[in-house]
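Please discuss these two lines.
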Amino acid sequence: MSDAVVDDIVALLPPLLQSIEALGFVARYLHPPEFGEVMRLAGTPDAQLRSELPRVAKWPDQFAHLREPLRMAGDHALAAFDGLRAVDSGAGDLGAVFRALRHLPQALEALYPLAATLPPVSGLYLDPALQQDEALHARLAQPKYADSGVFHYANEPGSRGGFSFYVPEYYTPDRAWPLVVALHGGSGNGRLFLWSWLRDARSRGAIVVAPTATGRTWALMGDDADTPNLARIVDFIRSRWSIDPERLLVTGLSDGGTFCYVTGLDDASPFTHLAPIAASFHPLLAGMASADRLRGLPIQIVHGRHDWMFPVELARQAQQALFKAGADVSYREIEDLSHTYPREINAALLDWLNGAG
């Protein structure tokens, strides 16, 4: 690698990684009444990124394997900030904020191939609490298992019914691994939602699958085409990788969280643990489930006190109804959470799934 390319990477990576982290901050703390303050706290790392990103355009094609992931990730990060700043200046609404933030997982997807060769990039996909873990770094330094990494099956943005998934690069078939099935929110896409979980799956050793609903959102009314589709997806993963039958978690955000109840309370459900996040709930969901299915079923409900879409009282009612019905239910109410995904909960959910929390 030429000295000029090295110098460009050294100049570009800090503002690129800082911009991605800042977008993650906005996504986590997004609350409509406080949007302006959240943007102020996020800072302006995109200004330096905008200045440094043109460096990669002049690289020769022999460095395309580095140039293109960096360029694509940078373009997505800048597009996200452009959209957010437009709303902050009064040109747009909450829908425009959500559209802008869709560029964040696209930036993460574009940059991920460089995690294997650039240590600062690898650190972006590790839990901060484990970034200095020598045993984890030793596992990541081993030769990559052939059937590991990020995969997409009929799951291009805008498509329905496909799925994306991640298998840790240090996977070995000689032990059974936990499986997390993570369901996106309404009008979402599993390919994007996968990146809400990849960092923690990579850090702690789990296989994570992010399906896309067969319809505009999950089958919360009418015919349920999603439950059989999830069953097919789980069967596919279990047929090719070693999955622990006692550690099968279905979790999800918003409509995906509500569908955790719908599909997870079914008698035929393969899932051993349920974790609905920022979900709606109706007592009929518990009433329709059989006593045998509910008895002792581990359920962890996560909800934000400032949720503006599904008031927190719904989650409190869900905890009470499911507890009375015999489930082994716990409840986490996050004081500063609005209607968004609290990525910090993933580590606790994996500890719980693994019997340590």
